[in-house]
Write a structure and sequence with these properties.
122 residues; mainly alpha; single chain
Length: 122
């Protein structure tokens, strides 16, 4: 487990790698905001498909060709990572400071609901 991985480290590496496929990212026009959003939604759809198969286990309806539950959980982890990485790229394309946005949103919801949990920096 990588407990000390930081948003900024992921964003820097993700952006550098993306510039290999999309020179000039995020200022290029090769992919629009809609393209990045569609890629994110595609990965979320792949995750939903894995979760659907996990749900079959919960209901006792496993299909004969479905992977094992452990394999599905590993697949879900990979798809969650894909969703995060595309979300990060979409934020970069839009000029959104993702860590700041997460802190602000989390703290607003906690405050609105009267919960004590707060993220630092907000």
């Amino acid at each position: 487990m990588t407990d000390d991985l930081r948003f900024t480290e992921v964003t820097a590496a993700n952006r550098n790698r993306t510039e290999r496929w999309h020179p000039g990212f995020p200022d290029d026009n090769e992919w629009t905001v809609a393209d990045w959003s569609n890629a994110l939604c595609g990965e979320a759809g792949e995750l939903a498909n894995v979760v659907k198969k996990l749900r079959r286990y919960e209901c006792g309806l496993r299909g004969p060709l479905d992977p094992s539950e452990d394999e599905l959980r590993a697949m879900a982890g990979a798809e969650i990572a894909d969703v995060y990485l595309y979300l990060d790229l979409l934020a970069v394309k839009l000029g959104v400071d993702l860590p700041a946005a997460v802190v602000a949103k989390f703290n607003r919801v906690s405050e609105r609901q009267g919960f004590p949990e707060r993220l630092p920096g907000g």
